[in-house]
Specification:
3-stranded antiparallel sheet; 2 domains; 4-stranded mixed sheet
């Protein structure tokens, strides 16, 4: 029976080490293996500060996709969107401000999204706030303002 004690202790130590790598992946050699597997772990939109634009002006955004070790992954393609539609954004990240007639009308978020490619794993995304400076001149004139009855 005494011969089983060292084997049991070694098995227990191994089980605790495996459990620790799953709970705290940054502190083990297992995370080093994950970091080099080329799996995307994060997306970051650059510039990552609020952008305030006039109608018709443009801002180029770019997305940096990183692996678990923080290294940029080349060739990863993100999908760009803007919600609500305060402007347009193309596949290269070029945003053009198009809408803001009222102060609250021109606030949106530009988002870069990368599908995980693995069933059951959520997609990765990041976004940045965009504000289109409002222009009340783009509102139609109020009805009845054509003639105010004064001559």
């Amino acid at each position: 029976m005494r011969a089983l004690a060292p084997a049991f202790a070694a098995t227990l130590a191994l089980a605790l080490a495996v459990a620790a790598t799953q709970l705290w992946p940054g502190g083990s050699s297992a995370s080093a293996l994950d970091a080099v597997d080329g799996t995307a772990a994060s997306v970051e939109v650059i510039p990552h500060v609020e952008q305030v634009l006039e109608r018709g002006h443009a801002q180029r955004f770019r997305a940096i996709v990183r692996d678990r070790g923080g290294a940029p992954l080349e060739g990863a393609t993100v999908t760009w969107s803007v919600t609500p539609r305060v402007g347009t954004i193309d596949a290269t990240g070029l945003f053009v401000a198009t809408r803001a007639c009222l102060p609250w009308d021109g606030i949106g978020i530009v988002t870069a999204t990368l599908p995980s490619g693995v069933r059951g794993r959520p997609q990765l995304s990041d976004g940045v706030l965009v504000v289109v400076h409002y222009d009340p001149g783009c509102l139609p004139p109020p009805s009845g303002s054509e003639g105010d009855g004064q001559r």
